Amino acid sequence: MPMPEFDTLKQLVEEAEEDVAKAVGGNKAAGTRVRKKMQDIKNAAQEVRKRILEDRSSDAATPES
């Protein structure tokens, strides 16, 4: 079953990669962008966690044959 929440998380990490390299190099504006992206990543990770719990709960509620 596809999980769009996880795909979003991966995309956000990929988007941050270039700015992380710039921030490590001393670019303060890139550092600001990275911090913002990290907050987005945190929120996306929480969505993945919620989805996993929802799927697990629905599997537990489904009677096995």
How is this structure best described in words?
With about 60 residues, the chain is an all-alpha fold. The chain has one domain (about 5-55). Helices cover about 85% and strands about 0% of the residues. It contains two helices and no strands. It has helices at about 5-25, 30-60. The longest helix has about 35 residues, at about 30-60. The mean pLDDT is about 95.
User: For the CA atoms, what is the radius of gyration?
Assistant: 17 Å
Mean pLDDT: 93
End-to-end distance, in Å? 20 Å
Quaternary structure classification? single chain
Indicate the low-confidence ranges by residue numbers.
none
Annotation field: number of helices: 2
Total beta-strand segments: 0
- Shape summary: rod-shaped
Number of domains: 1
The percentage of residues in β strands lies in under 5%
From the helix content, strand content and strand pairing, which structural class follows?
Answer: mainly alpha
Q: Main sheet, how many strands, which sense, barrel?
A: none
- What is the element string, with H for helices and E for strands? HH
Summarize the amount of helix as a percent range.
over 70%
